[in-house]
Design brief:
The chain has 155 residues and is α/β, with parallel strands linked by helices. Strand 4, helix 3 and strand 5 form a beta-alpha-beta unit. Helix 1 runs parallel beside helix 2 and helix 4 packs antiparallel against helix 5.
Length: 155
């Protein structure tokens, strides 16, 4: 990005997996972009490049979640490509972990609902157990559909 203001604009307008930013920008610092990403709780990996490195800024960048801190001129383009690959892999793994946590919460809620249905059916001695079974089956099918990404064929 060409500046902190441009980063604000771009980050607010679409999704990014990776951002590569210079530490010294005309209107601020790449560390300001990093803070913006963290304040907004965005899942964006950030590589900081600088021609004016300091131990303090490197530590601040890495402590605040930058994937890496590279010193210019970066003559080894394979190194940069590897850093980008690894940053994107970390992003993919984090996104997968977030998705799994969300699914786990939904499945735990579904299990609680199934338990309630079964408890109500046990307490209802005069009721029809087929209704409870139908409700439980529907809940289980919804979880299966989410896991496999396809509905169970009716038949």
């Amino acid at each position: 990005v060409s500046g902190v203001a441009k980063a604000h604009e771009m980050i607010g307008s679409r999704h990014y997996d990776l951002c590569i930013v210079d530490k010294n920008l005309p209107d601020g610092s790449g560390l300001d972009v990093l803070r913006l990403i963290r304040e907004r709780n965005l899942e964006i990996e950030l590589l900081i490049l600088t021609g004016y490195p300091s131990m303090e800024s490197a530590i601040e960048a890495l402590r605040n979640g930058a994937y890496d801190y590279l010193i210019k001129p970066v003559l080894d383009l394979e190194l940069v490509a590897e850093k980008v690959r690894r940053a994107l892999e970390r992003h993919r793994l984090r996104a997968g972990r977030t998705l799994m946590a969300e699914r786990q919460q939904r499945w735990a809620a579904t299990l609680a609902e199934v338990t309630q249905i079964l408890d109500r059916a046990k307490g209802d001695k005069d009721g029809d157990p087929r209704a409870a079974l139908a409700d439980v089956t529907a809940k289980i099918q919804a979880v299966r559909d989410e896991l496999l990404g396809e509905p169970i064929p009716s038949g």
